[in-house]
Design brief:
By secondary structure, the protein is an all-alpha fold. It has a domain of 27 residues. It is built from three helices and no strands. The termini are far apart.
Length: 62
Amino acid sequence: MLKFIKGHMESMEGIEIYPIISLLIFFIFFVILFWWVFTAKKDYIKTVSHIPLENHQNDTEL
């Protein structure tokens, strides 16, 4: 099955650019994410990290 797919894709012209584009999208996404993590305000991170632990009065009890 893999030989069929590989042989079929090798016959297409210009297909070699898609893995490069995928790698660039992947790399750029994680560079931006890395940059955001290090530039985020500490107060924001602390507030967001405590959201799951907050006990709201408006929640319906089961």
